[in-house]
Amino acid sequence: MIIEIFKEHQMPRLRFLNLDLCAKIIAGIMILVIWQIGVALFAANFVAKPLNIIGVLPDVITDEVFIEATAATLSAVIKGLFIALIAGTVVGVAMGRVKFFDRLLNLYINGFYTMPMVAALPLLTIWFGYESNARLATIVFAAFFSIAMSARDGARAVPPEYLEVCSAYRAKPYHIWFDITVFSSLPYLIAGFRLAAGRALVGAVIAEFFISLDGLGMYILSHTRSFQHNEAVVGVLMLIAFGLTFESTMNWVMRRYFPWYRREGRGA
Amino acid sequence: MFSIINSDNRWIKYATVCLGLLLGAIAWEIFGLNSNPAFMAPLIGNDEHPGAAVRLISNFSDQEFVESLIGSARLFITGFTIALIIAVPFGILLARLNWLRVALDTYILMLYVTPMVALIPFVLAMMGFDFWPKVVVVFLFSFFPVLYNTLEGARSVKPELIEVAHSFRSNEMALWTDVLVPYTLPYALTGIRQATGRALVGMIAAEFFLSTSGLGKEIMISSRTFDMAGVLATIILITIIGVLMMRLAQALEQHFSSWRGLER
Questions:
Q1: Which tops the pLDDT comparison, B210 or B262?
Q2: Which residues on chain A are in Cβ contact (under 8 Å) with B216?
Q3: Nearest-neighbour CA in chain B from A178: distance (Å)
Q4: With 60 as the cut, is the pLDDT of residue A264 above it?
Q5: Inter-chain contact A243–B121, Cβ cutoff 8 Å?
Q6: In whole angstroms, what is the distance from residue A241 CA to residue A251 CA?
């Protein structure tokens, strides 16, 4: 009897889980097969095919040039994100807490946020030269405004009751800041940071295309130009891997440290 | 002092916004007038330092520029529309076919996080320099945000609702129009809002890196000749277009957001 109940409750779930995974794997294999056959039949010889990509994968990953390119792009992105995070948080929190700054700056932050950073690229190269500074500037530019915007929203999202309680108990500003404001705006900040990271990666790649700077973007560009598409696809896969790793790390951080926060402020 | 500048009085609000604009404009003007014209252009300027705002207005009487603008608009609208026409119905279809959604959602997420700029060289190598490769780029930039967000909506459609519809012998048509579309549309609109921004980036990127045309070409030519007023004028124009489209998309999203219901 007990076993039967157990079975009834456990079995469908287990089976369902496996089914899910099976469906995913089958779909993945089907996509790859269609890709392989489609390209073999209809596209030119140099176009990347899954089997060839797997073939070149070990060589590329151990390739000195590829590792250096990855390191260059990644370190620039991390550096840029760090700068944007600090500056963006300061500006955003100032805007969120003081209405004067908000009214003064909101138009600019929104405008720059919407402005496609590619369009500013020629300008940034003239200002910062055809070197890695221009890439860093592009990354900061791409990331800063989304962080500032979400920091602003976060700082405004502090429940007023909490602040009232604080002032009723005569809490020190220090406590108000670090025990209330920071914690209630962190989820927003993380949502903004997530968005910023994606934009930063795009910014880095575009900047590398534009100013022919060594990095993953340039690796992809030069290999597609010399018709080594399989190698270039590995570069793209690396970028996807960054994106996915970042997404899942953020998800994990959210679940682990902010379990009370549900995915509401995403997007923006 | 603080209580005055932070008060919610309507006039003080407007005054602060105007002050912000004014300060920005003055700072830009001073900076532009005092720097090399090949480095930065002022807003209004004089004969020696041509201004960006003046240029922006005079651009509209320039036949070539207007043609570029129309070319860009054509590219944007074509790519974006094709993306919407495919992504939204496909997303709703995924709401209907649960197994297909489960099978594909990992891959859709993967493509959603892919920086699409990285695919531009491939598009170039495979399709060349025509108008349509650029459409493909705009399509790639805008397709996945819409699809991903519609999928998110599809995931939230309650199976009970579909069951109830079935038990009342609703036909497929009614199921779509009364359950699936209203449920997923608000999410699709979030995606559309995200996609407008991305498609704009895609449009400029395509015009830079594929055959140069449209507004991208205008920026390119101006920056090559160190005509900063031209560069800034075009960037301002693109930004204004972007903000307007974003506002429109936001208004649409807000209008339908009540359809999401109370719980998410």
A1: B210
A2: 119
A3: 23
A4: no
A5: no
A6: 15
> Which pLDDT score, from 0 to 100, does residue A261 have?
65
Nearest to B107 among A31, A47, A127 (CB): A31
| Residue in A with minimal Cα distance to B24 | A108
Is the pLDDT reported for residue A176 higher than 90? Answer: no
Q: Hey, are the CB atoms on A209 and B120 less than 8 Å from each other? A: yes
Instruction: Give the mean pLDDT of B123-139.
Output: 88
> For chain A, how many helices (H) and strands (E)?
11, 0
CATH of domain A51-257: 1.10.3720.10
Do B117 and A217 make contact, defined as CB atoms within 8 angstroms?
A: yes
Whether CATH 3.40.120.10 fits B56-260: no
pLDDT in tens, B59-98: 888 888 899 999 999 999 999 999 999 999 998 888 888 8
- Supply the ipTM of this predicted assembly: 0.81
Plot region of A127 (φ>0 → left; ψ -120 to 50 → alpha; else → beta)? alpha
Q: Higher confidence at residue A59 or residue B136?
A: B136
- Smallest Cβ distance to B115: which of A100, A239, A264? A239
* Full 3-state SS string of chain B: CHHHHCCCCHHHHHHHHHHHHHHHHHHHHHHHHHCCCCCCCCCCECCCCECHHHHHHHHCCCHHHHHHHHHHHHHHHHHHHHHHHHHHHHHHHHHHCHHHHHHHHHHHHHHHHCCHHHHHHHHHHHHCCCHHHHHHHHHHHHHHHHHHHHHHHHHHCCHHHHHHHHHCCCCHHHHHHHHHHHHHHHHHHHHHHHHHHHHHHHHHHHHHHCCCCHHHHHHHHHHHCCCHHHHHHHHHHHHHHHHHHHHHHHHHHHHHHHHHCCCC
Residues of A in contact with B110 (CB under 8 A): 240, 244
Q: Mean pLDDT over all residues of chain B? A: 86
Amino acid at A86: I
Q: Which of B88, B118, B89 is nearest to B201 (CA)?
A: B118
Instruction: Name chain A contacts of B115, Cβ cutoff 8 Å.
Output: 198, 201-202, 205, 239, 243
Give the start-to-end residue ranges of the domains of chain A: 2-43, 51-257
CA-based nearest residue in chain B for residue A266:
B190
The whole-angstrom distance between A53's CA and the closest CA on chain B is: 14
User: Which residues in chain B are closer than 8 Å to A106, comparing Cβ atoms?
Assistant: 17
Cβ within 8 Å, pair A224-B110: no
The yes-or-no verdict on residue A13 having pLDDT over 70 is no
